[in-house]
Model the fold of this input.
Amino acid sequence: MANAVYVALITAIYAAIFIVSSEFVMSYENLLSDSGWASFIISQNMKFVGIGMIGVAIIVDTLLALRRKRYDEYQIVLLEKVFLFNGLFTAVLFPLSLVVLILAPMYFVETIFALILFQWGVMAITELLYLITNYKV
Done:
């Protein structure tokens, strides 16, 4: 259950950032580069990324809810490793993003969007891998 709450909270925060900020990104248009990623952001498509994130989280949380057996010691250790990996990944990623933003502040909007999406993607992949490898009906 803690796993489902973790996925839901992280996804809700990030999806809200993407959905809400997609409406206001035009005011930062002068801070975006000419890349394809920046064009995607300018077109206000980040709200669709946020909606997709919510869809993936619903699938993961549904699979977690369908799993009715309790975790044994081995699975709890694996789950702790998943949380530890995601925590360490986040702890490394955010200072790295700060360095990127200091070195290239003119690209901060697309850099933040990319790093948040990357962090959430790694979290979703590790949770799905855990779920697939340990799913028992």
Observations:
- The longest helix spans residues 73-103.
- The helical segments are 2-24, 36-42, 46-66, 73-103, 108-134.
- The radius of gyration is 17 Å.
